[in-house]
Amino acid sequence: MSNLTMYESNYQCVRDHLQYINLVLAKLLLTREESSKGLYISQEEVWNVMDNIEKVVECENTQLISSIDEAYSIIQSRIQASLRKGCNFPFLKLYSLFELDEDEIFIVSLLLAGHTNPKYKTVFAYLNNDLNQKFATVELLLDAVSHNHEERFRKQCYFRRSAPLLSHRVIQIQDECVSLTDRFKDWLCEVDCVEKDIENIVEIHKRGDDLHNARAMQIFADKTAMTWLTGIDTNEKIRWIHCQHPQIEEIVVGDLDAILSHKDLYDVLDLAFREALLRESCLFFRNGSTLHEHPQSSMILRFIEKKLRTGKCQLYVCGENRGSFGMQSHHVAMPPLEERKQIWMLFAKNEISQNKINKLAEKYSLSFSQIENIYKEWCRSGKSLEVICKEFLAPKKSHYIQFIDPHYKWKDIVLPKDKKQELKEISKCIEHKDFVLDEWNFQSKVAGKRGINIVFSGGPGTGKTMTADIIAGSNNMNLYKVDTASIVDKYIGETEKKLRTVFEQVSDTNSILFFDEADSLFGKRGEVERAQDRYANVTVSYLLQKIEDHNGIVILATNLIENLDKAFVRRMNFVIQFPHPTIKQRVGIWKKIFPREVPVDNIDLEFLAKKVDLSGGYIKNIAWLACFYAAEDDKVLRMSHIIRSVRREYQKIGKAFLDSDFAPYV
């Protein structure tokens, strides 16, 4: 056995332990009587096997004991030297990672010898006094690590279920035969694989060349054993965990839904934790909401907490609903503006201009994996980057929100000059939101709030929805209109669930959430006279909290701002009143309402503006129906078609139509 100061590889460490095992086995063989073993294998055959393995020669017992002590001393000396140098070989980790003592490590070494060299089977069969028993037994192992009956009795605890060898699944015992588990044997031999029983349930995420989010590490310095993660996509959460643990190279990622639906869920959970322990990595479970919904959730949580008490593994769980579990939570935010620029540059290199990168980073709040996928799609499809960004940020289809494709421009809407300028300023605030919050660190002054909340108040058809469309289009954002009728539910608690779904769907999608007729959801809270009143107030309070926590843009539209709860109005960033259009403004609306392709004949816009005292939305309805009347006649739009359409619109809204008011066109 070489007497070097430290081990340079895992193989050297294993080799020295195997040499030490040979000496111990030689001592054990010397204590055996030939007559007890001669029935199957002669002692000479066994010594020949031993000689072929490591040239162990028969000698006096005292000399062998001296050689054993010397070999043990050398191993310990080299292990200590290796640990001081920071060596991290699997065999060295047996002491710290699994809390094994010297006898338990000897047991592991002896079992590894039987796995790596089939010639040891002859030795085991001889010592077991059974030619067919070619594996180490509990009795054989106890003989090897004990010097007397008292030690042998005491060391039986090594094979209890709660002992490290079995609790960490280092060994397995079947019919008194002891062997290393396959995964542990592979780990000792530095084979990179996953336990076969969970290979379809967990995956290993290795650290890549991702840019590290230093800001995230500063925010979440105080870590606990179990943390619930909310926020953006799974890949970004994994990247965030890597940033929190720069010392680890890989993360064990598991699907908690698949684990909890497994027939042996506790075994699978245990194997997942063992995999993380072997790799000295963190454990990350997706679909954590299933834990809250599982009938054995409390028992499973206690099992998990027990596994975490060792302090050797940290667990992260993500999901939509944390439920009542008291674990610490953290919201994983999108990368800040400057980091998004660096990510774009990492992929784009010289293919995209710096100016273009700056604009993309400012307009679209994207994660690392989203930018990577967008870049790949851009290279493959040839679509514009803006189009691909909007496609990637679009939420899943929902019964509660409707996508509106923005197509209006500022030139299309008729409003007082100062009102239009105010709306354009709001649009610019949305455009530069991330720059002000991240680059100028104004987020520190607003308690982490990143959203912008706006109220549009005005009568029907005054341009509230159209303005939301224009703001979305001018900022290359998607616009989603909330279907308030499907959100409001008569059953207690259901409205809140639907609202949570809506906000989760549009979270981090760089979109505008538009609540039309917000009065039905954001109505005033009143006196609690009935149980329904109390729950209605709870809904309003819950919705207010969701809006404040939302990191995007929310626009509330109402016909009367007095109908909204005062707390909502007070906490909005902007409140815009849309006035009823004047005659001059109605002339402008009539000028813009008909497409150029519509052939017209002597349309009196001034007359229409004076006589039809309606807002733009109603005027649009009138113009639309008038075109159908014209198409039915001679395909030319005339005043008679428009007045006929005005009559129908008045009837629809309950407004009196007098022929005398519209002479001579009636």
TrEMBL record:
<dbReference type="InterPro" id="IPR003959">
    <property type="entry name" value="ATPase_AAA_core"/>
</dbReference>
<dbReference type="Pfam" id="PF22977">
    <property type="entry name" value="WHD"/>
</dbReference>
<feature type="domain" description="AAA+ ATPase">
    <location>
        <begin position="450"/>
        <end position="582"/>
    </location>
</feature>
<dbReference type="GO" id="GO:0005524">
    <property type="term" value="F:ATP binding"/>
</dbReference>
<dbReference type="Pfam" id="PF00004">
    <property type="entry name" value="AAA"/>
</dbReference>
<dbReference type="InterPro" id="IPR027417">
    <property type="entry name" value="P-loop_NTPase"/>
</dbReference>
<comment type="similarity">
    <text>Belongs to the AAA ATPase family.</text>
</comment>
<keyword id="KW-0547">Nucleotide-binding</keyword>
<protein>
    <submittedName>
        <fullName>ATPase AAA</fullName>
    </submittedName>
</protein>
<dbReference type="InterPro" id="IPR054472">
    <property type="entry name" value="WHD"/>
</dbReference>
<dbReference type="InterPro" id="IPR050221">
    <property type="entry name" value="26S_Proteasome_ATPase"/>
</dbReference>
<dbReference type="InterPro" id="IPR003593">
    <property type="entry name" value="AAA+_ATPase"/>
</dbReference>
<keyword id="KW-0067">ATP-binding</keyword>
<dbReference type="GO" id="GO:0016887">
    <property type="term" value="F:ATP hydrolysis activity"/>
</dbReference>
